[in-house]
Specification:
By secondary structure, the protein is α/β, with parallel strands linked by helices. About 20% of the residues lie in helices and about 15% in strands. Strand 20, helix 6 (about 390-400) and strand 21 form a beta-alpha-beta unit. Helix 9 (about 635-640) runs antiparallel to helix 10.
Length: about 725
C-alpha cells in the first residue's frame, strides 16, 4: 500500500519525466554530444569532459580498446537485431552496435556471447530484465543519450561480468527513485559508471542513496550530476572508487555548500573534479577526509574566492597526497594582488602542478613567493590573469622554486581588455641572480603582457627547451637576449612589434627546431648582406615562420645553411620575387608564399623545387599572388601546370595580363597565350626582315649614287699615301 507522500512523489516524477523527455527530444535535434567515436565498433571510444574537452585519462578502461580483426557476421544464422544493428565478431565474442538507430525499445534475446552492446543515442525510455537476460559475458553496456526515465530493479541481474555501464544523458531526474535500491547489486565487477546529464532541474529532490552503490566493490570511476545536498556516505567505503567527476553542466550542478559529511565514504578517492558547480562554501572537514587525494579540480567556482581556496581549502589538504591542484577561475574579484604569506598552506603541499588561471591576479610587489617548501612543484600555470611582465618577479619565482619545469603565464590581460582597467606598473630592480642556482625550468611562457619584455637569464647551465613570449612589446632583440640556451628547441616571438634582430642573435641556440616570428616588423633588415648568416647557426631548424613582416625582399642566402629546414612560411608579405638559394635545402617540404606580389618563379628556383620533389613530397602555396600572363612567363605557367611539386589550390590560380585583365591558369589559357605569342613572334620576324631589307637597299642606293665621289676620294687618299712612302 502506497502512502500519500509516495503517491505525490510518483506523480511529481511522472510530471518531471514528461517535461524532460520533451526537452530531450528537442535538444537532441539541435545539439550533437561531444563524444569521439561513440559507437562500440568505432575501435576507440573516449570519455570526454564536455565543457573543456579535456580527456580524462585516469582509467584505461574509460577508453574502449581498439579491436583488430573483427569480422562481420555472415551466414544464415544471423540474429534479427543484426539487420538493424551492426554486428561483428572476433574469437566468438560479439560486438553489437545499435547506436544512432532511432530505437524506442531495446532488443530482447541478445546472444549470450555478446561482449560489447551499444544502444547510445536512441529514444529508449525503459529497460528491463528481458533486454539483458543471459548476458553474463557482457563487458560493456552503453545506454547514454536516450530517454530512460526508470530502471527496473532486476534489469541488470544477469550482467555479472559487466565492467563499464554508461547511463549518462538520460532522464533519471530523481536518482533514488529512478534507480531503485538493489538495481546495481549484481554488478560486482563494474569499474566505470556514468550517471551525469540526468538531473536536469535544480531542486528536483534527488538524493544519493549510498545503499544503491554498496555492492559495487570494484567501482573505480563515477561521473554524476552535482545536485544540492549531495553526500557520499559510508556505503561508498565498500567500493574502490578512485575517480569522481561531478559535472558542472548548466542547470545540472548546483551544490552551493558541501557539508562536513559530504565525502565520508571516499577514503580511497584519488581524483576529484567539481568544476562549475556554483560552490560558495567547501567544508575543510570534508576535504580532510580525502587522505588519498592526488588530483583536485575546483575550477569555475568563482563564488569560493581566492582567500578561501588558499586558506582553509589548502590547509585541509596538507595531510593528503595531493599532487595536482587546479584553482582556475575561483574568484570573481578583479585585480587580486597576492602576497607571499597567502601561499603559506600551498607551500606545505607536495604539489607537482598548481594551476591558477583566469583569476585576475596582478603582479605582486613583494618577494618570497614559495609555492613548494619541498621543491616538488614542476608546473606553475598563471594563464589569463592580469600579470604585466616583470623580470624580478619571474626570476624570484624561479629562484625560490628551482624545480619548476613549466612556468606558463600565457594570454595575460585577455579579460582585462574587456573591462578597460588600467594597472599602475611598479618598478623593481632585479636582486635575484639565477646563475647562482641550478634551475629545472624547461618550458617558459609569458604572453600578452602590457610591458616591454626582456627574457630572464636562465643561468649558465640550463635545460630550457620551450619559450613562448608572443604578443608582447619587444621592439629589438640583441645578442644577450638568448644566451646559453643550448637546449632550446621551440621559440615563439610572434606579434611582438620586433623591428630589428641582431645578426648574431641565434649563435647560442644550435638546437632550435621551431621558430615563429610572424606578425612583426622585420621587413627592412632581412635583405642586407649581413642577414646572409643570421640563421646560419640553426643547423637543426625545421620550421620558420616569417609571415606578416612587411618583407619586400630577402637575401638569397638567408636560409642556405639551415640544412634541416622543412617548412618556410613567408606568406602575407610584399615579395615581388623569390630567388632564394634552395640547392642545399634537401629537406624542404612546405614553402608558403601565399598573399605576396610574386609574378613568377625563376628557372633556378623551379629546378631546385623539381629536384627536391623527385625525392619527397614538396608543397608550394602561391595563392593570391600577382602571377603574370606574358610571353616571357610561359615557361613558368607550363611548369605550374605540369610540375610534380604539389602546388596548393593551383586549379584556382589567376594570372594577370598587361591590360590588368585576368584569366584562370589552365591548359587553354596557356595554349591561347602561346598562340598569341607565336603571332607576335612571326610579326616581329617579318618586321625585322623588312626593316633590314629597307636599310640594305637604302645603303646600296646611297653607295651607287655617290660611287664616283667615293672612288675619287679613295684614289686621292691612295696617291697621298704613296707620296709619303717615296
Amino acid at each position: 500500500m502506497c502512502t500519500l507522500n509516495e503517491v505525490k512523489m510518483g506523480l511529481f516524477i511522472t510530471y518531471l519525466s514528461c517535461v524532460v523527455i520533451v526537452n530531450s527530444k528537442i535538444n537532441r535535434i539541435s545539439a550533437t554530444p561531444k563524444y569521439e567515436n561513440r559507437s562500440a565498433n568505432g575501435n576507440l571510444r573516449k570519455f570526454v569532459d564536455i565543457y573543456d574537452d579535456i580527456e580524462l585519462q585516469w582509467l584505461d578502461s574509460v577508453k574502449w580498446k581498439a579491436v583488430e580483426g573483427q569480422m562481420a557476421i555472415s551466414g544464415t544464422d544471423i540474429p534479427d537485431y543484426c539487420h538493424t544493428c551492426n554486428c561483428t565478431q572476433l574469437n566468438n565474442d560479439m560486438y553489437v552496435d545499435c547506436a544512432h538507430r532511432d530505437l524506442s525499445t531495446a532488443f530482447e534475446s541478445i546472444r549470450s556471447n555478446t561482449l560489447v552492446l551499444d544502444y547510445s543515442d536512441n529514444g529508449i525510455e525503459i529497460v528491463s530484465f528481458e533486454n539483458f537476460v543471459g548476458l553474463t559475458h557482457l563487458n560493456v553496456l552503453s545506454l547514454s543519450f536516450n530517454l530512460i526515465i526508470h530502471l527496473d530493479d532486476t534489469a541488470f541481474n544477469d550482467l555479472t561480468n559487466l565492467t563499464e555501464l554508461y547511463l549518462d544523458h538520460n532522464s533519471l531526474i530523481v536518482l533514488h527513485y529512478c534507480i531503485p535500491t538493489g538495481t546495481l547489486d549484481h554488478l560486482t565487477n563494474l569499474r566505470v559508471l556514468t550517471l551525469h546529464g540526468n538531473v536536469n532541474l535544480i531542486d528536483s529532490g534527488s538524493k544519493l542513496n549510498g545503499e544503491t552503490f554498496r555492492s559495487l566493490r570494484n567501482l573505480l570511476f563515477l561521473s554524476i550530476d552535482g545536485f544540492k545536498n549531495i553526500t557520499f556516505d559510508k556505503n561508498f567505503l565498500y567500493t574502490n572508487l578512485s575517480t569522481l567527476l561531478i559535472k558542472g553542466e548548466p542547470s545540472r550542478c548546483d551544490i552551493d555548500v558541501l557539508e562536513d559529511d559530504a565525502f565520508d565514504g571516499l577514503s580511497k578517492l584519488q581524483n576529484l573534479v567539481m568544476k562549475q558547480c556554483k560552490i560558495k562554501l567547501l567544508s575543510p572537514v570534508a576535504l580532510a577526509n580525502l587522505k588519498s587525494l592526488v588530483y583536485f579540480d575546483i575550477s569555475g567556482n568563482h563564488l569560493l574566492g581566492m582567500k578561501q581556496v588558499l586558506g582553509p581549502v589548502a590547509k585541509a589538504l596538507i595531510n593528503s597526497k595531493i599532487k595536482i591542484l587546479k584553482l582556475n577561475g575561483v574568484s570573481h574579484q578583479t585585480g587580486i594582488k597576492l602576497k607571499s604569506e597567502d601561499f603559506l598552506y600551498i607551500s606545505h603541499l607536495n604539489l607537482m602542478e598548481l594551476h591558477m588561471d583566469l583569476n585576475s591576479i596582478v603582479t605582486p610587489d613583494g618577494y618570497g613567493f614559495v609555492f613548494s617548501n619541498h621543491s616538488t612543484l614542476k608546473v606553475l600555470s598563471l594563464r589569463r590573469n592580469m600579470l604585466y611582465y616583470s623580470e624580478w618577479f619571474v626570476e624570484n619565482v624561479l629562484f625560490l622554486n628551482p624545480n619548476i619545469e613549466v612556468l606558463d603565464c600565457g594570454d595575460q590581460f585577455t579579460v582585462l581588455s574587456l573591462l578597460n582597467i588600467t594597472i599602475e606598473n611598479s618598478e623593481h630592480d632585479s636582486e635575484v641572480y639565477l646563475n647562482h642556482r641550478k634551475l629545472s625550468i624547461r618550458k617558459f611562457i609569458f604572453t600578452g603582457t602590457r610591458k616591454m619584455l626582456i627574457l630572464p637569464d636562465f643561468g649558465r647551465t640550463n635545460f630550457v627547451e620551450y619559450i613562448d613570449i608572443s604578443c608582447n612589446y619587444i621592439s629589438k632583440f640583441t645578442d644577450n637576449q638568448l644566451t646559453n640556451l643550448f637546449h632550446l628547441m621551440f621559440l615563439n616571438m610572434s606579434n611582438s612589434f620586433i623591428e630589428t634582430l641582431s645578426y648574431s642573435l641565434f649563435k647560442n641556440t644550435p638546437s632550435l627546431k621551431y621558430l615563429d616570428m610572424q606578425n612583426n616588423l622585420l621587413g627592412f633588415g632581412l635583405n642586407s648582406s649581413k642577414a646572409a648568416d643570421m640563421f646560419a647557426p640553426l643547423k637543426n631548424l625545421e620550421t620558420i615562420i616569417l609571415s606578416k613582416n612587411r618583407i619586400y625582399s630577402l637575401n638569397k642566402h638567408i636560409f642556405s645553411k639551415c640544412v634541416a629546414i622543412k617548412t618556410i612560411d613567408l606568406s602575407e608579405n610584399y615579395l615581388d620575387t623569390f630567388d632564394l638559394i634552395l640547392h642545399t635545402l634537401n629537406n624542404v617540404s612546405v614553402l608558403n608564399l601565399r598573399n605576396n606580389r610574386i609574378q613568377t618563379l625563376s628557372q633556378t628556383v623551379r629546378s631546385y623545387l623539381s629536384i627536391i620533389a623527385s625525392k619527397h613530397l614538396v608543397v608550394v602555396n602561391l595563392e593570391n599572388n600577382k602571377l603574370i600572363c606574358s610571353c616571357d612567363n610561359i615557361e613558368f605557367l607550363n611548369w605550374l601546370l605540369n610540375t610534380t611539386v604539389s602546388v596548393t589550390g593551383k586549379d584556382d590560380y589567376n594570372c594577370y595580363f598587361s591590360n590588368s585583365s585576368q584569366s584562370l591558369i589552365n591548359t587553354n589559357t596557356v595554349q591561347a597565350l602561346e598562340t598569341e605569342c607565336f603571332k607576335y613572334l612571326a610579326l616581329i620576324i617579318v618586321l625585322t626582315a623588312i626593316i633590314t631589307l629597307y636599310l640594305v637597299l637604302n645603303i646600296a642606293v646611297i653607295i651607287f649614287r655617290y660611287r664616283w665621289h667615293i672612288l675619287y676620294r679613295y684614289i686621292a687618299s691612295l696617291r697621298i699615301e704613296i707620296g709619303k712612302r717615296t
